[in-house]
Design brief:
The chain has 188 residues and is an alpha/beta fold. Helix content is 24%, strand content 30%. Strands 1, 2, 3, 4, 5, 6 and 8 form a 7-stranded mixed β-sheet that branches. A 3-stranded parallel β-sheet has the order 7-9-10. The protein is globular.
Length: 188
């Protein structure tokens, strides 16, 4: 069966945050993952921007019922961009694949008033650990720009609506990676 797919590079890599049953690991070239903020959300989140030299890992997932309108609503801060020619995957057919990206000029850098959420980072990294192991999760940090963003330490009272509890090992991994990058944690 040929479905339309989308490439997930953030929280969608964590299978516990969605019910997209038909999901597969994949690699996207020509895009770089970055932390950004828009007026549509009070906090910073991940997007991708064109970058011919970059490749990032993630998941492709079948669009439920090929209903792009419903998925577009879920991803309303983003534009859907065709990307099938830029995605490497193990599927035996060549489906339509899109990636969601905030349009150029519609986003800015995170600030103290619009930080990234630690609960969101936890979810994303948990997904990368489970899908790609520690090496792949380290690659997530290395292939993501904008780590100078302030990070709100909301672990004790998560703001991110699809937050997940980390194992002690997952939590240590996230904390160690943030410490390696001198990430500024702020409190509410």
């Amino acid at each position: 069966m040929k479905h339309a797919y989308f490439f997930g590079y953030g929280s969608l890599v964590n299978r516990d945050t969605h019910e997209f049953a038909e999901a597969h690991t994949a690699r996207l070239r020509g895009w770089k993952r970055v932390w950004r903020h828009t007026s549509l959300r009070p906090v910073a989140f991940l997007t991708v921007v064109p970058d011919e030299t970059s490749e990032i890992d993630g998941l492709i997932a079948a669009v439920p019922g090929d209903d792009w309108a419903a998925l577009d609503e879920r991803e309303r801060a983003y534009n859907r961009v065709p990307a099938a020619h830029q995605v490497t995957h193990a599927l035996t057919h060549s489906p339509e694949i899109a990636v969601y990206s905030i349009p150029d000029g519609a986003h800015g850098h995170p600030t103290q008033a619009h930080p990234a959420l630690l609960s969101y980072i936890d979810v994303v990294v948990q997904g990368y650990l489970r899908e790609f192991g520690e090496e792949g999760a380290r690659a997530f940090f290395e292939t993501t720009d904008g780590w100078e963003a302030p990070v709100l330490n909301d672990r004790a009272d998560p703001v991110y609506p699809r937050h997940k509890v980390l194992t002690p090992d997952e939590r240590c991994f996230v904390d160690d990676q943030l410490a390696l990058r001198d990430i500024q944690l702020i409190r509410r």
